Give the backbone structure.
Amino acid sequence: MNYGIDRNFTYRIGESEISKVIAVAPLLSEFNEFNNLFAGALQDAGARAVDYKGGLRSLSQCDAVIFHWPDQFMRPDDWRVAVNQLARIHILKRTHGLKVVWLAHNIHPHDADQRATMIQSAFINALDGIIYLSRKSQRLVHEAYRLPRGIVQQVTVHGRYPAPPLSFQPPADQERVQLVSVGLVRPYKNLTELVKATADLEPSQIEVAVVGKRHDAAYSATLEASAAGKPALRLQLSDSLIRQSELNEVIDRAHGVVLPYRKILNSGSAVLALSRARPVLVPATGSMPELADLVGHDWVRLYEGEITGAVLARFADHLKSIPAGAAPDLSCLSWDRVTDDLRAFFSSLFGTRRTRAYQGKKAG
């Protein structure tokens, strides 16, 4: 698989040779490697991937635009930006046949208010296609929205992250179990409940680290205040985003990763942890049970209800039972699979003859 972006190529589907330009919002990121991996899969599937620019001139040169997180570009805090973005898209759909695609990471914007929900609904009405990262994602999107007639849909997976050959090493006898929660510090991550849960832990047995960027100043301040007097907890918050290489090192130093989401659909952080041979603890919600079925319940540990000290302690005990040198089988999350799914999706989106490889269920 190619991780660089080739700006000039064509591809063949069936008997037709096609060259399509796909604007991706955002195309690349130094902080989220998934964007770069997905861009490489687009290229391997035969799309000329370019960075999304909202102007009419740049979009008029594209055949389609794919949005990862539309709320980042159609900002609910500035109605003029959102309205202008949607207006340009509708103009080009009529005049140039622009296709609009959503890569459905989540159903609604995280921590969304009414304005964000309204913008999301308007965005849904403009769609020509949706790519889902799980079958549960497809079901939940269908429950949440009335989709446009004839919309093209494809189920794929959240591809794994590249890593050198890694294996799990359980805690040694008498060694403290190291757990970590990583990512942006936001309310939907449910970190306040995780902090409370650490009060019930024996600090000589378990340490829980929370590592991430302060996304919401008030929420972060509340979190830091509640951390006082909890010796089993270590907060490591910063005002800048953590680079992928630093994030990898944080995960590698831990025995397991805890992601106590209040509400979640898909989780790149969970896939990243698994890619580095670290078991994850997640709530049994969204696509997490599906992920556990794919890679194994020894590696994706599910819990019901709130995160508690008892839940954390059971996870720590489980980590001690995993044999040294073990690693999850992530062949089901291969980028070859994603590439084949994208190729099938494009053949349907652009009206060419469909190939059949890892083809997701087409919803009506």
Remarks:
- The first strand starts at residue 11 and ends at 13.
- Residues 1-18, 353-364 have pLDDT under 50 and may be disordered.
